[in-house]
Amino acid sequence: MIYDLMKVFFIQDALINAGTEKSYLEILPKLSEKIIPVLIYFYPRHDLFEQFENAGVKVIFLDLKGKYDFFNGIIRLRSVVKQEKPDIMVSSLLRANIISRMVSLIEGTPLIGTLVSDSYSKEARKIKSPLVRLKFNFFWFLDRITASIPKHYISNSNHLVSSHSKYLGISSAKVDVIYRGREIPDNCWNNSVNKTCRFLAIGRLIPLKGYMELILAFKKVKKKYPCIELTIFGEGVYRKDLENLISNLNFQNCIFLPGSVPNVTNRIFDFNCFIFPSWYEGFSGALVEAMMAGIPILASDIPMNLEAVQDKKTALVFPVRNVDALADQMIYAIEHPEEMAEMGRRAREIAINRFDINLIAQQYEEVLWNVYHRYAQKA
């Protein structure tokens, strides 16, 4: 089949160094020359701006000042749509989704939504503050009443399809599942897990990542194996809370928070074991990176993680938010180094076959063309 050129707007809240944004940084340069990607974002976080430009992706910043300035967001995005005339749009994350849906409705440009996080899960709804709960419910309602506007959806896990079908009324027939992909690294992990084990975690410093429980589990393990260390790469609003806990435990010399560092994936090979303790997620790019590297993995048993790893085959799994169970698995990893290394090898092999970014980009492009031929050509 001979395809035309297709201009696609990929619309985001901001360019923070997080999973969804990093995934597009991986995918967009891999699309064929028949796709003209334009990345649009609203809010002044520019962490990945230079990387996108260096990758040859056109970037447009719409500079919204208010955190929920949807009115001006709609005006500015609509203006760009009129000027650039995209064939289709793809939106990710709540604020960008709401703005993009309104512009799609007004201008008639077909929109693809994305399902990237289990935002309405049981864990996500455990909000204690009445004011925060009111705000949560308002945006849930806004999300639900506009969820029918996108012509199609791309989800990064099967679990998110069923979750959003339940909470937003999205028909599973409108959704394609495409997992997050990553480049296959040239290196392969070959460190030993041992009694001087250096544990690693990667992700934003926010409560849902499970780092408080990880540190408390680390405390239990350190009583038996005092030489262990833990490093958590990432930045976020939870830094002060974590620093206070580390200080109260007097663990400044064995737990480290280096912040966000360039090319953090390359640092995986310096450690002995990767831990992913999230309460809820989408489909984690960090977990895929760890699998690709071949490092032994401990992961919480949330459904999205279980779509990537299998307990005792490619990782050790523990019940989410269970400090004692996590500590037990950390001890098991220290005491069974050969078994852990074999799990890492199997995880790498599976990840290469399932999550190679070139394969993921092909799958993504196929969905774009399907939506284009079904909807955009009729506009």
Characteristics of this structure?
single chain; 379 residues; alpha/beta; Rossmann fold; 2 domains; seven-stranded parallel beta sheet; 13 helices; 13 strands
Protein described:
The protein has 379 residues and is an alpha/beta fold. The chain has 2 domains: 6-181 and 356-378, Rossmann fold (3-Layer(aba) Sandwich), CATH 3.40.50; 198-355, Glycogen Phosphorylase B (Rossmann fold), CATH 3.40.50.2000. It has 13 helices and 13 strands. Helix 1 links the parallel strand 1 (6-12) and strand 2. It is globular. The model has no long low-confidence stretch (mean pLDDT 93).
CATH class of the largest domain: Alpha Beta
Q: What does the average pLDDT come to? A: 93
> What is the alpha-carbon Rg in Å?
21 Å
Q: Estimate the global geometry from the Cα principal axes.
A: globular
What's the CATH H-level superfamily name of the largest domain? Glycogen Phosphorylase B
What order do the strands of the largest sheet run in, or round the barrel if closed? 3-2-1-4-5-6-7
Determine the structural class based on helices, strands and strand pairing.
alpha/beta
List the SSEs and their pairings.
Layout lengths: L5 E7 L6 H9 L7 E7 L7 H6 L3 E4 L8 H15 L3 E4 L2 H14 L3 E5 L14 H17 L5 E4 L2 H11 L6 E3 L20 E5 L8 H14 L4 E5 L5 H10 L6 E5 L13 E4 L8 H9 L3 E4 L2 H4 L9 E3 L4 H13 L1 H19 L1 H18 L5
Short note summarizing the structure:
It is built from 13 helices and 13 strands.
